[in-house]
Structure formats: structure tokens, C-alpha cells
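An instance follows:
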Amino acid sequence: MMEAAGLDALLVISPEFFLWATGAPAGVAAGWRRLGAAMAVIPADPASPVGAVASDLFAPAALAAGCAPLRTHAIWPEALSLRAVMREGTSAAELVAAATADRPADFARPSTFDREAALAQLRALLADQRLAAVRIGVELSAVPATDLLALEAAIAPARISDASLLLDRLRSHKSPAEIALLRQAGAITEAALTAFIPAIREGATRPELGRHFLDLVQQHGGAATAPLTAWEYVGFGTSPWSSPGGVQRGDVVKVDVGAVVGGYSADLGRTFTLGPAPRLAREVFAPLLDAFEAGRALFSPGTALATIHATCLRVVRDAGFPSYARGHFGHGLGASIWSEEWPFTAADSDVVLEPGMVMAFELPWYLDGIGGFIVEDMLLITETGAETLAGAGLPRGLVEL
């Protein structure tokens, strides 16, 4: 893909893309989402390793991940490794002095990190990789406007072009390690949602329900092999966005949730009612479920996402809702700022499903006055179809509790 685009290398900027490219965390300095905290350079030559610029605090992780060459810059924490200078009977002051013997006399740590110092290391890295005067595809979607001119100056005479979409396309194909994390996230999410259902009872408030789901993720996350977090969108009643008061009989309860393992997010959604489902709720949910089943049957290699979108839209409209409109019926899943990652199951998508993609497929509708509705599963595209990573053990219908 780089050869077709006329690129000699890719420059990755965002923390989630840095993790994808290197296998190492971008580190705490990336939290400001400014240029320079961590950067990776992927040469077009497949025989060349991925090089990186990392902060001194997180350089050992990048080194262990195989980044070569590796250039580092200082950030604000003073975190020294004393292992190489440890000697029996030596004082702490002597150990620190030995560990910093090569440090310049005027050394000072920046208040956060020094962009110019990081970009100087990027320039040196490109020289190390013999990429000093080539065409580099940059993740420009992650470069703040205030940093762009500094980036161009730092890597001149190398020429840059926007490779954001190319990187999105590359990341849509998950590696076995990524699929393993997403599989864990899906299993934990489904287990937590199953355990969550008894909490949907009369009087339960939105904050209580949200906290309870997050607690359940931790309780069911013992198998996680990476840091575990979660998110939740639980809403109920006729005003699904505000969910005032507590759950009442007859309320529609929308549960859209995900566990996140090592930055990789699951996404699963189901709809319930407390007691018998009101007539209007049944009328709304029935075509959503029909559209979901029609769209789900299309998830296999070679299917265009635009075809799935058109199918779902047609089913709901043909059921008596000709004005129904929704921009997408799902999205990719992976390590991103939140749970929705490119590509989208949308009318304007040019993406065709391929093995190794992990997708959330959803049919939501939010109707103030009736309630919020969703049915959503998490799918892995295989050679022959699609495997459900989250949702297989839960009924898709409107469940009356």
C-alpha cells in the first residue's frame, strides 16, 4: 500500500497508532495529544524494523518491543534505573551520581515534554534509517495545526503527505494479538451484561446502574491479560438521554456497553423493558430487529458495508417508517479514543469486508417520548463468514423483565 501511494515510510503520531505500530505504550506524555511525545517510523521496506522516538521513561518498553533504531527525549518525571550501578554498601547518593554521570551539567527536565527536543530526535531517527530526504506519509489527522509547521521544518527536505486513511485501512485488519485482546473484551462484556440484568429493577437510578456495570466488568475480568477498563451508556424511560429519577414499570431500558482490554474496546447493546413491553415500544423495536437479522446475514468477506447499510435502512422504512434515517449501522473496533473506529457501515463507505476485520453491528433508534432502543453484536470477519465475539449468549429481542 505504501508503494502504491509512492511513500517510503509512514510516520505515526497518535498514542493508539503508536501502540499498534510498535507494540509499546506511547506513555503518559501522550495524554496531551500534542506532537512529539511518541512517534514511530514504519519504512516501506519490509526488511527494515520500525523505528521510534519515545520518552526516556517509556524507552525500555519500546526497546523491549523491538523498536530499532530508538531515539529518546526527556519528560518531566525523574525515573532512573540504578540496576547497572548497584553495589553493596553504596549510598543512594552515590548510586544516583553514578547513574547520571553522563548527564550534562546544565541538564533540566521540561515541565511536560520539549517538542523541539523530540523533533530533533525524529530528524536523527530518519537519518539513522536513511530516510532523510524521502516522501513520508504522516498521520496528519493526529497532528495539531499549531505543530504542523514545526514538523515540516524538522524533517525537511523530506516531503510529507497525508496518510491518515491509509493507516486506517491498515489498522482495520487486526493481528492475532489484537484479535485476542478484542476476544477477551467481548467475553468480559457479555458476562458483565448478563450479570447486570438483575440490577434493572424498579427504582434503580442511572448513576447506580452505570456504576454497577463498571463494577461487574472488574468482577468478570479475571482473564484479562492487559489493563482493564470499561464504558457504559445505560438509559431508560421515555427520555433516554436524561433518564430522570428511577426505573419504573413499563420503561424501556437501553444498555450499550463495552469492556476495554489493553486499549481494545468491545461494544455490545441490548434493549429491555421492566414488565410487559408497551405497544409503542414493540412497534418500534420489531423492525429494528428485522433489519438487524437481515444485515447480520450479510456479514461475510466480499460484502460492501454500503450494501449492509442500504439493506438495514430499507427494512426499517418498509416496515412503516419511511422517514427513518441513520448515518451508520456500526463501525470497526480496536484501540481508539473511544469505541467507534473506522470503517463505518455507511452509505458512503467504499469498504468491502475482509477476514481479520472486527466490527460492531448495531441497529439503534432514540425516540424521546417512547425510549431508546438498540440491538448490537461484536463480530470478527472470518474466511467464511462472521464469528460473534460478544452477544451470542444473549437474546436479541426486546426482553421483558
User: Anything to note?
Assistant: The first strand starts at residue 9 and ends at 12.
